[in-house]
TrEMBL record:
Full protein name: Uncharacterized protein
Organism the protein comes from: Plectonema cf. radiosum LEGE 06105
Length: 84
């Protein structure tokens, strides 16, 4: 009975870890796509700003300030924080 109970609790712990996206080291993982049409968490070290001259969103590296990409569709990048 105790082996069954131990196995049951191990399964519960693994499911909770997967739900909270906690790695073995206890740290939170990076942002991840859930496969259900949304992302859990935000992308680290990235930001985006709207360029009214081109009517497009520009993604940049938050540490260096270097521009990385421009979104051609006019919609903002998913999972990247917006600058004020």
């Amino acid at each position: 009975m105790s082996k069954l109970l131990t196995a049951f609790f191990l399964i519960i712990i693994e499911n909770v870890k997967a739900f909270l996206h906690i790695s073995e080291g206890g740290d939170k993982d990076m942002a991840k796509n859930t496969g259900k049409g949304y992302r859990r968490g935000a992308v680290d070290n990235r930001s985006q700003a709207y360029n009214p001259a081109t009517e497009q969103w520009v993604k940049r590296n938050a540490e260096t300030g270097q521009f990385m990409d421009v979104k051609q569709s006019g919609e903002p990048f998913k999972g990247v924080r917006k600058e004020d």
